Amino acid sequence: MTKRPCCTRCLRPQSHCLCADIPDLHSATELLVLQHPSEQHHALNTARLLCLGLDTAHLLVAEHVPDDWMAWLQDADYRTELLFPGPDAGELASTSDGRPRRLVLLDGTWRKARKLYYLNPVLHPLPQVALPAGPPSRYRLRKSPGAEALSTLEAGVRALGILEPAIDFTPLLRPFERLIDGQIAAMGTLTYQAHFAHRGAGKPGKP
């Protein structure tokens, strides 16, 4: 069977390209998304959509943070935090100490996100922050360990909304909504209802 040609930017089949829905936004906050390599070519790759739509977001596909990113994470001129709800995590807040903000997100299943954390000691000194309770995820196509689980894109949008409340980051959700609706349409209503409609779904932007 001939493989369908794909868009080189969003990596979706050209017939289902999402680029027209991807915004071009700027934030004062820099994001680094560390993505487990197994997620790179997943059909529901929301981390890539987040980074394509935000000019201050960086997508790093690796199990180990390479040396050239160590200085970025350790730069004391920035307030760099890890979106990771560990036992000592505080709630993400807009309060500032005067330094520009940087936020690190781990992209993968909960098990893979935890693995990324433990494989990278450079992440361990970073203050851990968690999102406050909010609306449930719109990520309706993946099983989730809890109703609070969000896709990486949703977690990024919600975090940016807290850090920079004067800016509307919801346009970043447009390609995400179209992606989910397209996947549901392709599988058919009966299949979707049988397997997903009554379950929480989501891939964590935070483990």
UniProtKB/TrEMBL annotation:
Question: Where is each DTW domain found?
Answer: 3-188
Q: Which GO terms describe its molecular function?
A: tRNA-uridine aminocarboxypropyltransferase activity
- E.C. number: 2.5.1.25
Listed A to Z, the keywords are: S-adenosyl-L-methionine, Transferase, tRNA processing
Domain of life, per lineage: Bacteria
Q: Which example biological process does GO assign this protein? A: tRNA processing
What protein family is recorded?
Belongs to the TDD superfamily. DTWD2 family.
From the Swiss-Prot or TrEMBL record, give the protein name.
tRNA-uridine aminocarboxypropyltransferase
- Name the source organism: Halopseudomonas salegens
